Amino acid sequence: MPIAKKKFRVHVVSETEYMMKGQGVHTAFVDCVALLKSQDDLEVLVNQQGWGDVMHAHTYGPYFFWKGRRYPGRRIYTVHVIPDSIKGSLPAWRLLMPFVRWYFKRVYAYATVCIAISPMVEEAIRALNAGTPIVRIFNPIDTEKFAASPARRAQGRKLLGLPKDAFVVLGVGQLQSRKGVEDFLDVAAACPEYTFVWAGGRPFGVMTEGIVKLNRRMAAAGPQVKFPGLFDLEKMPLIYNAADLLLFPSFQENCPLVPVEAAAAGLPVIYRDLPEYVRLYQAPYLKAKNTDEFIALTRRMAGEASFRRQGQRISKNILSQFERQRIRQRLVALYRDVAAGRIPQP
What we know:
alpha/beta; Rossmann fold; 2 domains; six-stranded parallel beta sheet; 14 helices
């Protein structure tokens, strides 16, 4: 009998498996593992499951360096976080920034190849002069997992305790200043006739930037504003389906998963008008420059069915950029090239 050819092995690593699961990096890691396992051409090893032909890491802590010791010349790192990501996340971010830049330069330099998930991330890597080759590959999205359905909508509204006839405005993300939670509350205060739900937790706990002020604002919010906390990834399709509109008022993002997941659930999405989105998205999107514009667009979405349908079409058009199988092909090609020593030029 012929001997079966050994499969190419990819070792996927992320510290989020052990802590801080309520954030986009963990979602991206879980989605990456599921995507790689969706075909049988690879053997996918996760964290402690063994050793592979290449390592693909999603986090930048000691675990990345520890696991990477066995992969000289074969370390692939997806850059989800850049130095600017700490702005508005931690109270002393201005004091910490020199150390953060120093540390991230060493993280990027430790990798054989960095995957930049957006043009802005690629710029941030180059700005630190780490000297590491960079390949741009977007975060993939499993549209079927989030697809709109009456059953998911009913389950989501029951889970959140929402009336069937309420117009529900959703926010998703960590409860911190950088995510624009206070702007979300300003929109809610101006639109008391709608229901507002923010799903997310605080991975940094008491170290969250502006926690005292934010707690005060949340406590003073009207009864139509709900903060149900953090949900497991398996519940998020229900949360998106329960809503009618997603507001994404974050002040800094790289390649955010939340608005794309919401779009996959059939929601219109209103972004904050940020320069990084202009370069990231290949299709038009709805955006607001300030709170007044968020309020105006929210009211139009609630009051004009035709505008809401237009918003849904705009969201749907964004999805093709993050098609899973095309992204998987690029990842697999990169793995094999790195394992064979075919490293892209910096």
